[in-house]
Structure formats: structure tokens, C-alpha cells
Amino acid sequence: MRLEDDRPVPHEGATVPVTVVASRTEAELIVGMLRNNDLTAAVSADDAGGQEPELQLQGVRVMVAPADEAAARRLLAAANDNDTPD
């Protein structure tokens, strides 16, 4: 597996999902946030490389290296906490 910027994922094949979202766009935003925090992350979708977006209804996964899973989950939880109205 390779990241979209063609960097290999460490321990190729050893990735874990940290969230499943409704669209590739949302997944890309999450991956960007994780990468900005120095985590290895990638999008995994069965949508013909974005050519068949209706297949995204099955969910788009955000995958991370196993070593980054705990940190990724913390960042996602913090982001979700910030999204809730006061």
C-alpha cells in the first residue's frame, strides 16, 4: 500500500482503520489533519479510484500505521469534541 503522495506506508500491509466516513472528501480532510500531526495515514475506498463515487456509500476508511493508531484516535476524538455545539 502506498500513500497518495507515493510514500510507502511503513510495514506495508500493516494498517488499521481508525474511522469510516461517508465520502472520499471527508476522508481526505481527516488524512490531511493526521499527516499534519506527523502520523502516517491513507484513504481506503472501494470506489474505482474515485471514478464511481456512488460506491462510497459503503463507507470510506481512514487507515493508519498500527504505531499511530492511539494518537490518531485521540486526534479524532478531540476534533469531534470541537465540532459539538456549546
Distance between the termini: 40 Å
Helix content: 25-40%
Give the topology string: H per helix, E per strand. EHEEH
Strand order of the largest sheet: 1-3-2
- Residue fraction in strands: 15-25%
Name the poorly predicted regions. none
Rg, rounded, reads 13 Å
Shape: globular
Number of strands: 3
Features:
86 residues; alpha+beta; three-stranded antiparallel beta sheet; 2 helices; 17% strand; globular
Tell me what the structure shows.
This protein has 86 residues and is of the alpha+beta class. It has one domain. The chain contains 2 helices and 3 strands. Strands 1-3-2 form a 3-stranded antiparallel β-sheet, covered by helices on one side. The longest helix is centred in the last third of the chain and has 15 residues. The chain is globular and about 30 Å long. The mean pLDDT is 82.
SSE layout and pairings?
Elements: E1 16-21, H1 24-36, E2 41-44, E3 60-64, H2 69-83
Antiparallel strand pairs: 1-3, 2-3
Summarize the structure.
The protein has helices at 24-36, 69-83; strands at residues 16-21, 41-44, 60-64.
